[in-house]
Design goal:
Layout lengths: L10 H12 L12 H13 L10 H13 L4 E6 L18 E8 L3 E2 L3 H10 L3 E7 L7 H9 L14 E3 L6 H9 L1 H19 L4 E4 L1 H6 L12 E4 L17 E8 L8 E6 L3 H7 L4
Parallel strand pairs: 1-2, 2-4, 4-5, 5-6, 6-7, 7-8
Antiparallel strand pairs: 1-9, 2-3, 8-9
Helix pairs in contact: 5-7
């Protein structure tokens, strides 16, 4: 391969970008070696003990080729809500989007108005799919929030359906976030009660979606949750930073500003920590 550097524009640049994306780096695949590609190349070089000069010469090509030849293609997914608007799922490339999580509910009453439209289309097109509940901590019980999700009628025993997810993160106001800080033990008990209630009702063990800093700074790193699979939000190009208590993750949300053909605006993008066969098994297809 030719030596590539900032300003290069050819098919080799596109192949370089595709190879870096295959390794999990967030990069635009446009065939243009601009600032974004240079920064990503430097990250790759730093990650692999290469001279971080941003130039793709023989040494960088050799390491890149070696890594991409032995590492399986990543299993990518997205998560959406009514904020993404009406989506024409026929336009989504299933070779690039292996699974989709949809927002279902929040708190005691809220149900996402796009939930059933999205889930019906995903089922029709045989996407692997799942739903999540955004947890509210104050002035609502865990049982009320369990009932909210169950009231949507989602059948979690249906093949192709991923386990339910509890979204544990920052709330909509500083006062609500401060409430969590001031009542950490109670909030952890509520989270545990929701997880147990959903598992008892559906027969599926939920995942927990959270962020290292929220789990640490607001929840206080509560123990006893490490048996739940983790969906971690960590917007980095290298490995995600995990909350205390977990040694691994099931899903990594690595960006909130991805571009997906068929969906206007930015989209949350994720990578599954396993093979397509592993994902299918989690979705009751294995």
């Amino acid at each position: 391969m030719k030596t590539l550097k900032k300003g290069s524009k050819n098919a080799d640049v596109k192949f370089l970008q595709q190879s870096l994306a295959k390794l999990g780096y967030v990069i635009s695949v446009d065939g243009i070696f601009g600032n974004d590609t240079e920064r990503t190349v430097i990250r790759f070089q730093n990650d692999n003990d290469l001279s971080p000069d941003g130039v793709v010469g023989s040494n960088t090509w050799a390491v890149l080729t070696d890594l991409t030849s032995v590492r399986p293609a990543p299993v990518f997914g997205i998560d959406v809500s009514h904020h993404n608007g009406a989506i024409n799922w026929n336009n989504i490339n299933q070779s690039q989007v292996n699974f989709v999580y949809c927002k279902a509910t929040q708190g005691r009453w809220f149900r996402d108005p796009m939930l059933h439209s999205n889930m019906n289309e995903l089922k029709r097109l045989n996407f692997i799919r799942g739903v999540y509940h955004f947890f509210t901590f104050k002035d609502v019980t865990a049982a009320e929030q369990v009932n909210n999700l169950l009231g949507t009628g989602i059948d979690f025993s249906q093949p192709g359906t991923l386990p339910p997810v509890l979204d544990v993160e920052w709330q909509q106001s500083n006062s609500l976030n401060q409430y969590i800080k001031d009542n950490q033990a109670l909030c952890a008990q509520k989270v545990q009660a929701w997880l147990a209630g959903i598992e008892a009702a559906t027969g599926r063990k939920p995942l927990i979606y959270t962020n290292r800093f929220f789990w640490q700074d607001y929840m206080g790193n509560p123990p006893g949750f490490d048996s739940y699979l983790l969906w971690v939000a960590s917007y980095r190009n290298d490995e995600p930073r995990l909350p205390e208590g977990w040694n691994d993750y099931a899903i990594w949300q690595f960006t909130e500003s991805a571009s997906v053909q068929g969906i206007p605006g930015n989209v949350d993008k994720n990578v599954f920590n396993g093979s397509v066969a592993d994902l299918r098994k989690l979705a009751l297809l294995g």
